Amino acid sequence: MEMEEVSSFANLDFGSTRARSAFQWGGTVFALFLLLMNRTGRRSHMQTNLLVLYLFTSFPTILFKVLRGQFGCWVAFLCVASNLFFPQTFPVARFILFVITPDWLADRLRDDIVPGILCLIILILLILTEICGIGGLENCQCNCHCFGYWFGVAFLFFFTILYLAS
Q1: Which of 11, 51, 76, 116 could pair with 164 as two cysteines, CB 3.0-4.6 Å apart?
Q2: What is the number of alpha carbons within 13 Å of residue 144 lying toward its C-beta?
């Protein structure tokens, strides 16, 4: 009886639903919004790294294939060349993640239920780093920038839960 449940769970197709599409496009838009908020605000490297991992798992399939192809290789080459001359302006390691990740790992991190669970873990870590960054819950120093950040995180949670619930 339990083996039937496990095999039926393994046969679920998470990639063909509207929720998957909403997760990919909505998650990408709000993760890019949060990256922009991070670059104009406190510039937390930990939050930037977490958001890039979120983008890696939730980036729309069509755009992901373009970045993993010849175009992505050229952009990665230009990023590395720019990093040689302007290392503070062009953090190249984050973009190269999209290009050089092995296919078996990239496919596993982007298919099935794995991206939803990974994105939930990333979002929890984002919340914890933001709470530490604003001074904790006791000494909270919120402003409009902080409100916008929480707005973006709430939408990321919405799209991730929507994907996992379908």
Answers
A1: 116
A2: 1
Q: What confidence score (pLDDT) does residue 139 get?
A: 63
Contact 23, 163 (CB under 8 A): yes
**Which tokens is 38 given?**
């991070």
pLDDT tens per residue, range 34-61: 888 887 877 777 888 888 888 888 888 8
Place of tokens 């952009």: 75
> 17: Cβ–Cβ under 8 A, 6 or more apart, which residues?
166
Q: Is 151 exposed, middle or buried (0-12, 13-18, 19+ CB in 10 A)?
A: middle
The CA–CA distances, whole Å, from 160 to 71, 99, 113, 135 equal 29, 24, 11, 27
Tally of CB atoms within 10 A around 6: 9
